[in-house]
Amino acid sequence: SQIDISQDLKTLGLKEINHGTSTGNQWMENDVDPISSHSPVDGALIGKVGVTTPEQYEQTVQAAQKAFKEWRTTPAPKRGEIVRQFGEKLREKKEALGKLVSYEMGKSYQEGLGEVQEMIDICDFAVGLSRQLHGLTMHSERPNHRMYEQYHPLGVVGIISAFNFPVAVWAWNTALAWVCGDVCIWKPSEKTPLCGVACQNIIAEVLAENNLPEGISCLINGDYKIGELMTQDGRVPLVSATGSIRMGKIVAETVGKRLGKSLLELGGNNAIIITESADLEMCIPAMVFGAVGTCGQRCTSTRRLIIHESLYDKVKNQLVNAYKQLRIGNPLDEKNHVGPLIDQDSVNTYLAALEKVKASGGNVIVEGGVFEGEGYESGCYVKPAIAEADNSWEIVQHETFAPILYIMKYKTLDEAIEIQNGVVQGLSSAIMTNNMREMELFLSTQGSDCGIANVNIGTSGAEIGGAFGGEKETGGGRESGSDAWKVYMRRQTNTINYGNDLPLAQGIKFDL
Ligand code: UN1
Questions:
Q1: Contacts of 168 (CB under 8 A, 6+ apart)
Q2: Residues in domain Aldehyde dehydrogenase (predicted)?
Q3: Of 264, 271, 291, 476, which sits most exposed with the smallest number of CB within 10 A?
Q4: Measured on CA atoms in the order 200, 204, 205, 206, is the torsion positive or negative?
Q5: Could you read off the pLDDT of 393-422 as tens digits, one per residue?
Q6: How many CA atoms lie within 13 A of 317 on its CB side?
Q7: Is the CB of residue 300 below 6 angstroms from any atom belonging to ligand 1?
Q8: Which of 321, 328, 308, 402 has its CA nearest to residue 365?
Q9: How far is the CA of 402 from the centre of ligand 1 (A)?
Q10: Where residue 13 falls among pLDDT bands split at 50, 70, 90?
Q11: Ligand 1 neighbourhood includes 34 CB (under 6 angstroms)
Q12: What is the Å distance from ligand 1's center to 62 Cα?
């Protein structure tokens, strides 16, 4: 059956050919070949999006800088009100946007809706935050002096996002940045450019309804060369980038060279430790969702299971059975659990990884492969696979963005934690246990070295209220909840002398 989302595209203001550069309500055109966005669901062309030229980038930054001058003087709670209105519009368009996310990216419709829900949640969070951009006050060592700190906006924030969360990651960044008084320029993934245009249309409406200047929310499109214009640009004090470790190292180096700030959210190699006391009935769905959800294309996807030897065979059998129940196909059809990979390149990477596992000596217990025939015409549907593997193998050390799960055995919890931490990435981790000592050890300084450590839930599906991000080659950045907002602001320490003398700090004498 033909998939028709034309009504949703219309609701989101999308056309066959869309301009790709915008400062809000102003869209810039040019005659460069646009990006064609094909759906991995059925291979159909969804629409085209214009590519930003260097001249248009220049115009965009100038508009953003100009808007910043006005936006930074708008009281933070008033900025919060704009974000509140944005959240309201997202609620109205949740189904249409969720469907576009599902169709352009390939994740299940449920997960598409979940992604839009994350946008709504972060808007709510940001509205509250707009009255809580707190600094501390300190007691001065000098008499009749007062010390305090305040947070000021940074300026233009660049956001580079990935295809796998084509709308939520932008929202995490931009909703916080806006209440902090920053203006944003967003470069979405060239694999999901229509999601970018759809979001820009929504915020542009809010900005116009409130008579706000062009430049508070800007969109640019293209490949890494367009992103590079931002990373090299001294007028962009913060670049927040989500994507591969390879990309993150280039961004960090380029932004670091000009001593700018970068917020990096890079690859994960997330593991679940299944201990002897684990409640398997509860854990199996968590493990399977973690491994196959979003077709293994979350940075938080479960890639490794570290299983206690006493349970190993039992867990293995239960997993094999659970994988037999999985329905793979059109993600807009709600009876399917898993949709396609993003594109053909990704399918090739998946196949090459499976070959490598076998060549390394891995024992594949759930075979992979590419689906063919009716309903699979895009060529992007693959079988989630499981292999018994060794943590030290290069392929296991590497993040393959596909549904391949590696399982391994352990004897002592110390050994399990060592395996869990024995990768270059440090994003998410979990332990399945009903034993308080095991749980506390896992969460202690001797435990997981990741930015996220969970007990009795999987590695993926974090809520927006916590700080999101990871250590080591995951890049160290934190987005979303807790005090992640601080990276979008500059801190200023203020000392005020309200007395009639000038005592120096540290008791230094300087008599004239
Ligand atoms: C990502 O894959 O880049 O925790 C973000 C999760 C989601 C976000 C993932 N809330 O799985």
A1: 115, 116, 118, 119, 122
A2: 27-493
A3: 476
A4: positive
A5: 999 999 999 999 999 999 999 999 999 999
A6: 3
A7: yes
A8: 321
A9: 15
A10: very high
A11: no
A12: 32
